[in-house]
Each structure stands twice: as C-alpha cells, then as structure tokens.
Amino acid sequence: MSDPVPSTPNRATTGNRTPNSESRLALVRRARRIMRTLAAAYPDAHCELNFDDPLQLTVATILSAQCTDKRVNEVTPKLFARYPTAADYAGADRAELEELIRPTGFYRNKANSLMGLGAALVERHGGQVPSTLEELVRLPGIGRKTANVILGNAFDVPGLTVDTHFGRLVRRWGWTEAEDPVKIEKAVGELIPRKEWTMLSHRVIFHGRRVCHARRPACGACPLARDCPSYGHGPTDPATAAELVRGPEAERLLELAGLRGTDGEAAPSVTPEASAG
C-alpha cells in the first residue's frame, strides 16, 4: 500500500533525518511521498511560458535563459507575430531581432541562437522542430534542459527539466548530492516513474518559486516538512514562514501544511509537543 499524502507536518521529528541513514527503499518511498504531496499542492502546475506551437516554445525557452518567464511573456507576442516560421528567424534582420528581444537580456547571444536555430530547422528538419532529444540538442541554443522542456510540453514526451530551482530542491531533499544537471536527471529518473517526469518538473519549479526559496525557505509553512531533511534552513515559526509563501496557491499550501482551516482561518500552530503526542 502506498503511503498517504501528509497533511499536517510532524515537526517533532522533521529535521532529524539524514539522507545518509536511509536505505535505498526508504529514499524511493520518501521521494514518491514528496511527489504525491507536490501533486496535491500544485494540481494545475504547468509551463509558465506562453506558446501555441513547438517553435514558439523553443524560442521562448531560449529567451528564458537568465530571464524571468514573466518578462519573456511580455516580449514574445510581438516576436511571434513578426517571426511565425523558422525561415523567418533564419532570414531575420539582426538589428530588428535584437531590439525585440533586448528586454530578456544577453540579446546578442540570443539573437545568434534564434537565427542559427531557424537556419538549422530549415536545412535539417523542413522548418519543423524535431521531437527527439538527440535531434534537439544538436540545434543552436538548445541543451538538455531546453530539450526536455520542449519534449515534455510540446510533444508529451516525459522529461526532467533540471533548472536552478529543480537542482536546488532535489539536493535539499537528499535525492542526490550531484551538481551536474545530467547526473541530477539520472538520479531523479531512478527514483520517480518516467510518466511523472514532466509534471514533477513543473511542480518542483513551482515549489521553488513559491515556498522553498533559495535564501529563506518557508520551512514552517511547507507541506513537505515531514519528509524534508533540510527542514530548519528557513524560519520554522509558522506565522513567520506563512508570510514567505508566494503565488496564487498560497491558501491551499497553508492548508496542506496545517496552518489554515478549510474556512481559510488560521489553524492552531503545530508544536513539536503536540505532534509527538
């Protein structure tokens, strides 16, 4: 029988667990509990880049390097209208293209990638974005992370998107100690069923943006607290932590963490003594 999705974290024991003491089976079970809790916390998680087809997603993902998705989404409507096909990027006027994408930063390098991408798609793939990892990573501006975004969201091919948030969180959870994205991808892929990879990526990224912040994670308001060996890296006081939770899912996240009742009112804080009893 699978473990239930936790509701109220057990703060009496959370934080005392070390990943090194776990058996492989215990790690797999804990990783999958976290996966299920994330699914409950973020049922509507999705790619936050706006796109209508594989080419648009590919372009938006290239532009998202060192840039927020929000800023990319502000730039792409005009860009997509001006360059609807791969051939349009291949033949773009560089100055015009650079000006359109300037707000995303590193616009000269990104213009090189987009123009090179357009030319490669026209020459090798009839102007269409290919649907295999091997073909995608051979294209200008596309590495494994970008390729997995494209595969998972444009072609429904499961893939793990190892961005900064993803790597940071899976290390905090003790799923791996690896820093290299390819090693992280392999380690997580051995813990989580392949069919879950794309949605897991979205949910981990959502959690990293909303709760498990890099500098000050909202530990005391985190629905994963029971299964997180890094509990205590951020504020554990529920009221303090609750103020750090971001995004439209905030109320549901606080409910899952046991800090809100179903009526939206603040629930009694869960003390270590109460959890142990």
TrEMBL record:
Domain HhH-GPD span(s) in chain numbering: 63-210
InterPro entries associated with the record: DNA_glycosylase (IPR011257), Endonuclease-III-like_CS2 (IPR004036), Endonuclease3_FeS-loop_motif (IPR003651), Endouclease-III_FeS-bd_BS (IPR004035), HhH-GPD_domain (IPR003265), HhH_base_excis_C (IPR023170), HhH_motif (IPR000445), Hlx-hairpin-Hlx_DNA-bd_motif (IPR003583)
Coiled coil regions in record: none
PROSITE patterns documented for this protein: ENDONUCLEASE_III_1 (PS00764), ENDONUCLEASE_III_2 (PS01155)
Domain Helix-hairpin-helix DNA-binding motif class: 134-153
Substrates-to-products reaction catalysed: 2'-deoxyribonucleotide-(2'-deoxyribose 5'-phosphate)-2'-deoxyribonucleotide-DNA = a 3'-end 2'-deoxyribonucleotide-(2,3-dehydro-2,3-deoxyribose 5'-phosphate)-DNA + a 5'-end 5'-phospho-2'-deoxyribonucleoside-DNA + H(+)
GO molecular function: 4 iron, 4 sulfur cluster binding; class I DNA-(apurinic or apyrimidinic site) endonuclease activity; DNA binding; DNA N-glycosylase activity; metal ion binding
Enzyme class (EC, first level): lyase
Cofactor: [4Fe-4S] cluster
Annotated protein name in UniProt: Endonuclease III
Species assigned in the record: Actinopolyspora mortivallis
Gene: nth
